[in-house]
Design a protein that fits this description.
Shape: globular
CATH class: Alpha Beta
Number of strands: 15
CATH topology: Leucine-rich repeat, LRR (right-handed beta-alpha superhelix)
Oligomer: single chain
Number of domains: 1
Length: 355
Amino acid sequence: MPAHRFRSDANTTVLYHFDEGKGDVLKDSSGNDHHGKSVGANWVQVSDVPPVNASSLTPNAVARWVINSDGTVTTKFNDFSGHVVHEEFIGTIDALPENPSEIEAVFLPVKTRATAERIGDLAQLRGLNGLFLDFAEDGHVESDLSGLARLQSLQYLVVKSLNRTHRGNRLDGQWMKQLRGLSNLNRLELPFVGVTDSDLVHLKGLTSLEYLSLHGTEISDAGIGQVVPLRKLKSLGVGATHVGDDGRKQIASMTSLQELVASEVSITDVGLPHLRILNKLIHLYIQRTKVTAAGVSKLRQSLPACDIHSDFDGNVDLNRGLIGHWNFDEARGTAAKDSSANGHHATLKSMDESA
């Protein structure tokens, strides 16, 4: 992909830009289904165009590049106690602020290697503190993301990859070595990125980190020890990972935790007692695990100020002829679908929906 897009002139009939292509089929990816066929035209390879000299980039040029890459920016971005507020999404060049330093966050889909290799150019946006990189559409893009190391002002970083059902295309954790210098990073989310236990060593220098989500990654009990030294951590997400009871024992030493998300893991009642010393815990999520109602009840007695979310929530008397007990965030109709991937679907009979 060229560093600068070609521009039309008086002799241009039609101009298309493609990251790659072959044959004569033109497919419209905008959703408008304006597909076509190339007749009498040849592909022109421009991969040898020299890269843009970073020193010559202006903040305005970088902002326009984000928009041209199907990204968006926002001039108002705040993270209040873990709750992100996005305002004034900007997705067109005409709507960009006159002063690029007003841009506080960038949302960028990473569809090509060329995009990944230019992430460092975002350092020209002096007010940038939040970055969202979405590899979900094309997770096989390979890059060391070395440009991340230039974004010293980042406080919030989200790198999103394909979920575990697309394991072959997932972004791996090799790029995480670029995080070491981001000492201002307060929040890091890596949903479904192929992070392994060995990759967690790169979190060592993130001494300002308060929120860490490793949901859907490949970490296990063996890697949790790399997270324990993050003493400022208030929120930890290890849901849908390979963390079990042994990992819970290590997490128990993180006494500053106020929120722990550990749903869809293999924790049992054996691991619950380790959490009793987390007296600052406000929210605990242990749905779709192997814990029992009795284990959760005992934990509630030890942590009365903690809101524990489990498969046994609700005002249900477990001793009065209960046949089945399910919890749903929302529901309608008679189909009961098991979201745990165990395939235990069913049909409800002679039951009413109640608020």
